[in-house]
Amino acid sequence: MSKGKINVSVENIFPLIKKFLYSDHEIFLRELISNATDATLKLKHLTSIGEAKVEYGTPEIHVKIDKEAKKLHIIDQGLGMSADEVKKYINEVAFSGAEEFLEKHKDTAKDSGIIGHFGLGFYSAFMVAHTVEIITKSYTDEPAAHWTCDGSPNFTLEAADKQERGTEIILHIAEDSEEFLEESKISELLLKYNKFMPIPIVFGTKTETLPKPEGAKEEDPAPTKEVPNIINNPEPAWTKQPADLETADYQQFYRELYPMQFEEPLFHIHLNVDYPFNLTGILYFPKLSNDLSLQKDRIQLYQNQVFVTDNVEGIVPEFLTMLKGVIDSPDIPLNVSRSYLQADGAVKKISSYITRKVADKLKSLFNENREDFEAKWNDIKVVIEYGMLSEDKFMEKADAFALYPTVDNKYFTWNELQEALKENQTDKDGKLVILYASDKEAQHSYINAAKDKGYEVLLLDSPIVSHLLQKLETSNENITFARVDADHLDNLIKKDEDSISKLSDEEKETLKTSIEETLGTQTYTVKVEALDSNASPFIITEPEFMRRMKEMQQTGGGMFGMGNMPEMYNLVVNGNHELVAEILNTKTAKKKERLIKQSVDLAKLSKGLLKGEALTEFIERSYKFVK
Ligand code: ADP
Ligand code: MG
Q1: Is the C-beta atom of 198 inside 6 A of ligand 1?
Q2: 560 CA → ligand 1 middle, Å
Q3: Looking at residue 565, what is its pLDDT?
Q4: Proximal ligand: closest to the CA of 96
């Protein structure tokens, strides 16, 4: 047996880092700006604790393109490096100076906002550059150093005459990466990744309009001047204390985040924890449309003010990905795969913290101003209902603010609803029957019929509502939901004393048979009932269960593993209605058939089921009647 040590040589690793370290080449700029920011924040920290005896001043980071020479410069006024430090921090791949700094100053620098972590960021420069130079001057008395590397593991290090403190990184852009010499590209990247970084970043100039001099004529153009163009907002709202911000500041920040978004957010939630994990951020409830797929990926994830991604899947509970805003946490391990992320303990805590904060905020909004909350309900209900459906913790809390509106814009909480219905809306088994409509227009006649009987009808029209009802029924045994056009007439509210049948059993049977014969192959279950004589003569209903299953199949991606559900309708015939009596007593078979056909078609029409050829036929037949 022999033992040994695997020899990993830099020659092998270097090209690997270059090629595969980051799938996205464009992040090199984010990494270099992060390093420049770190260098500046380190200096800030060292001056603040008296370890660096220099003036901190108002340092900036400058990004410059030299198109001619195909070079990109990133220049900072941070703490710089001596030649020895370059050897230590740059030449040693995977040694992080940022981590070393945090370790060394762990008592004081915890909240300094230092970004670096793995000691790999700098090398991402080689993804776009064939040669990289570092010219750097330490804040100490050490002379400046000049490091050059052409992408092989060989480098040169010599003295330089740079006088001002700080570091200049020069990228000699490779031929296949020349897009990074375009002003528009660099500005796009800076705005994407660095828009809220803590040190001002200057890129190019912008034209500023000056006030007109005294005595200038109306038509004279205002004078202008070129000023340095600062790309970023170093103090974004989420880094401030909620107490220092007004509603207008939150709205202003929303526009900064989403310049193309013209609608105001409905409200915001400021997140701010530092134990047991660090997290800050602001979430906004936008106005939502019913198309859920359009809503996602609007929350931006930052680490120490550096943009990381707008895919927060796994970090934010699914139902909240419909919100907008930012989350900033140095504690989210982003170097791991998304599926692993979901199992990560810290991430789980973050996710449940966010859920709780959102629930608390909703509760206080509801308690503070119920009227306003009701007015916003239609725009926020999808998120809330989705949350109730997917997160049990949220479901528990939602009783305090989830609303159940009626078709007449009355809003009940869950408790109020049960209270309101318990008198008048229980079935023969004592179960509470909650009637609802999903479409005020399409179900108009059914809604009216239910209201005539004095029942409350809810308007539950979001796309996932059938799933939610299912869940509510499961956790509340004594409650049933029934859509107004469901077959509730049979199994639900049937305690009308006056609904004594005017027809004998024999007459009912005759009637049923002639209707079934006329309907022929159409699959309706015909039921003759003793309804109020004012109610419709013919009503089509659909078993609640079947319809809901079908809906859930459509919105739940076949989660129930069923094939296509068959259509199943009841034709309820009101035996107490005059017209029905007339049909029963009609002697000529032809006329009887015509009356039945016409009536059934009217019932279908009222449920939106009359289409195509049947509709054409119905219209022709109706004209004949009119004549
Ligand atoms: P990390 O940022 O994770 O520590 P990097 O590979 O990005 O790793 O950088 C390695 C080290 O090089 C940094 O930790 C820092 O010590 C040093 N460094 C890089 N860029 C600069 C800079 N602009 N000014 C001063 N030091 C720098
Ligand atoms: Mg770094």
Answers
A1: no
A2: 53
A3: 64
A4: 1
The rounded average pLDDT for each run of 10 residues, N- to C-terminus, in the chain (627 residues) is: 66 62 82 96 95 94 98 98 93 74 78 73 89 97 95 88 97 96 97 96 94 86 92 96 95 91 88 88 83 67 91 86 91 66 77 92 96 94 91 94 96 95 83 91 85 90 87 91 77 51 85 87 81 82 82 63 69 88 90 90 89 92 87
pLDDT at 17: 62
Map tokens 């907002």 to a residue: 233
Q: What distance in angstroms lies between residue 7's CA and the mean position of ligand 1's atoms?
A: 26
In the chain, what are the domains? 10-206 (3.30.565.10), 237-374 (3.30.230.80), 403-492 (3.40.50.11260), 505-626 (1.20.120.790)
> Among 45, 57, 39, 63, which residue's Cα sits nearest to residue 166?
39
Contact 254, 284 (CB under 8 A): yes
Three-class DSSP labels, 167-211:
EEEEEEECHHHHHHHCHHHHHHHHHHHCCCCCCCEEEEEEEEECC
pLDDT of residue 296: 57
User: Distance from the CA of 321 to the center of ligand 2, in angstroms?
Assistant: 29
Quick check: 40 and 112 in contact, CB under 8 A? Answer: no
Structure tokens at 23: 């799938």
Question: Cα angle at 559 between 553 and 561, to 5 degrees?
Answer: 85
268: tokens are 């915001």
Using the structure block, give the residue that is written with the tokens 């996602």: 296
Polymer length of the chain? 627
